[in-house]
Design goal:
160 residues, 8-stranded antiparallel barrel
Length: 160
């Protein structure tokens, strides 16, 4: 059984700084091939965080993939696509599950720390690995906002 998230959603996360009528995206080429990371934020403190293969990003077909009920339902069944976020001023923290490659449990959690730079940009600059001795990594991930409707609902079996 996976370890539960360390934090709990903090009630009312309404703020003018995070937009809820679309997603924030970041194209990551850290390991050679690219993945497009998407973060849908919900007012209840939940974040839906699917990754999309680079061929959809490069061919500008992200919105059509996100409009696919089959893709959304399949993505919603993966624990690693879910997390919670908290806000304090312009600071934001996301905690989400990641697959663990060794050990008795299958999942670990990461905490991403960043700053909301504008209504359309969030920059994450630190990553805390909650499994390996609380190791902190410096990162540079700039997510930009894109309007998108209909937004997938936040119903999932991993966060209550």
């Amino acid at each position: 059984m996976a370890r539960p998230l360390v934090s709990q959603p903090q009630g009312n996360n309404k703020t003018y700084q995070v937009k809820y009528h679309g997603y924030y995206g970041f194209y990551d080429q850290t390991y050679g091939s690219g993945d497009y990371h998407i973060a849908f934020f919900y007012e209840d403190g939940t974040v839906f965080y699917p990754r999309i293969a680079d061929e959809y990003y490069l061919s500008n077909k992200i919105d059509s993939l996100l409009s696919s009920p089959a893709f959304i339902e399949q993505s919603k069944q993966k624990r690693t696509n879910w997390g919670i976020y908290t806000l304090e001023g312009t600071q934001i923290k996301i905690e989400k599950w990641e697959l663990k490659h060794r050990g008795p449990t299958k999942f670990k959690t990461y905490e991403y720390f960043g700053e909301i730079k504008s209504n359309g940009t969030i920059v994450f600059n630190r990553l805390l690995d909650n499994y390996w001795n609380q190791k902190v990594f410096e990162i540079d991930r700039e997510f930009t906002f894109r309007e998108f409707r209909p937004k997938p609902d936040s119903t999932n079996r991993f966060i209550e």
